Amino acid sequence: MTDPNRVLIFDTTLRDGEQSPGATMSHTEKLDIAEMLDEMGVDVIEAGFPIASEGDFAAVSEIAKRAKNSVICGLARAQIPDIDRCWEAVRHAKQPRIHTFIGTSPLHRAIPNLDMDQMAARIHETVTHARNLCDNVQWSAMDATRTEHDYLCRVVEIAIKCGATTINIPDTVGYTAPRESAELIRMLLERVPGADTVIFATHCHNDLGMATANSLAAVEAGARQIECTINGLGERAGNTALEEVVMALKVRHDIMPYTTRIDTTKIMGLSRRVSQASGFLVQPNKAVVGKNAFLHESGIHQDGVLKNVETFEIMKPADIGLHEANIAMGKHSGRAALRAKLKELGYEMGDNQLRDVFVRFKALADRKKEVYDDDLVALVQDTTTNT
Ligand code: KIV
Ligand code: ZN
Q1: Mean pLDDT of 24-37
Q2: How far is the centre of ligand 2, averaged over its atoms, from the C-alpha of 152 (Å)?
Q3: How far is the CA of 12 from the centre of ligand 2 (A)?
Q4: Is 124 known as a binding-site position?
Q5: 84 assigned to a ligand binding site
Q6: Which of 140, 175, 202 to mutate to test the pocket of ligand 1 (most atoms within 8 A of CB)?
Q7: What pathway does this protein act in (predicted)?
Q8: Tell me: the pLDDT tens digits for 355-379?
C-alpha cells in the first residue's frame, strides 16, 4: 500500500457474522452478498470457514471463483488439515488469502492444553505451512487483548518471521476500551521486530458497545485493516459495524484523515440484504442504517431540517444510498412539517384548510404511534368533504 493513511476494510459478515446463533444464510444468499461486497469496494471478504462444513467449503470456493476485485479469505484453525482445506477453497480466487488463528491468552491456551513454548511451536509450524501454500497469509492471536504483552510480542514476531503478511489483534470478547486498544497496537509496532513490514488489523466485538470506538482508536495508533460486518452482525453483541467505521472515517475525516475505498452509496442496499438473508432485523435506532437514523419527528427538528437540513443531519442520506423521506409524522410534529408533507403528497392548501387538517392530524397522532402517508391522504379527503 502506497498511501500510509489508507485503511483496508475486511468484511467478515459471511464468517463471523454468520456465526451469530440463528443467522445461517443459504448458498445463494451468500453468493449474492459477496457480489455486493465485491462491488462496494471491500478489500477483503472473509467468505467462510471451509473445514466447518461442506456448505461453507462450497460457498467459499464459489465466491473465490466469482470475485472480481476483493481478496477472498477463508478461516482455518492452527491445524494442518484446516489450512489445507482452506487453501483448497480459496485457491480459485484471483487474490486468495489464508487466515489462520489460535487463542493466545492464558484462558485460551488452556483449552488445547499447550504451554507457551508448545503454542509458539504450533504457530511456527502452521504459519510456515500456510505461507508455503499462499503468498497472502493472515495470522490472528485470538483473545489478544487478554494476552500477556510479552507473550503477544513473542508470538507476533514468530508469525511475521514465518511469513504472515497481516497480523490481526482481536478483541474477541469485547473487553478492551479505546485507549487500551490504541496502546496495544502502538506497543506491538514499537516492540516487535519486523512489525513495520506487515499490516496490523483490528477485529473488535461489541460486548460493551465499544467495538467502533476501539477499531478507530486502533487505526489512530497504526492499524491499517478494520475487520467488521454489515449491521454489526456477529456472535453475542456482534462485531464492529462496517457502516459505522466507514461513515465515521468519511464524516470525521477532519480529525481522522484515513481513507477507505468503500462506495458508501451501497451501504443501505447491503444492510437490507443482510438483514433479510440472516433474519436479523436492524434496530430502529441503529447508527447509520436504522430506520430512524435519518427520520425527524419533533416539530423543532422538522422545522430545522426543512429550513436547513444540516441543523440535525451530520451526513446525507444519499451518501449511504437512502432516498426516502426524512420526516416522520407523529404527535410531536409541527405545522410546517405537515404543510411540507402534504405538498409532497400533492396537496397544497391555504392556511384555514391546513389549520383544520392539523387539528385532526394531532388528534389522530395522539392515538397512533406513527401517522403514515395513507392516513394523511384519508384525513385530507375527509376534512375537505366534511368542511
Ligand atoms: O473474534 C475473534 O477472535 C475471531 C478470530 C477467529 C479472528 O473471530
Ligand atoms: Zn470475531
Answers
A1: 98
A2: 18
A3: 8
A4: no
A5: no
A6: 140
A7: Amino-acid biosynthesis; L-leucine biosynthesis; L-leucine from 3-methyl-2-oxobutanoate: step 1/4
A8: 999 999 999 998 888 888 888 888 9
320 lines ligand 1 (CB under 6 A): no
205 is known to lie in a ligand binding site? yes
Q: Provide the grid cell at 250.
A: 468519511
Banded pLDDT at 387 (limits 50, 70, 90): low
Regarding the beta carbon of 203 and ligand 1, being less than 6 Å apart is answered: yes
Going by pLDDT thresholds of 50, 70 and 90, the confidence category of residue 386 is low
Decide: 16 in ligand 1 pocket, CB within 6 A.
Answer: yes
- Radius of gyration for the alpha carbons in the chain, expressed in angstroms and rounded: 25
Cell numbers at 335, concatenated: 405545522
Q: Is the CB of 96 under 6 A from ligand 1?
A: no
Average pLDDT over residues 141-145: 98
Q: pLDDT band at residue 214, thresholds of 50, 70 and 90?
A: very high
Ligand 1: residue of 82, 99, 101 to mutate (most ligand atoms within 8 A of CB) is 101
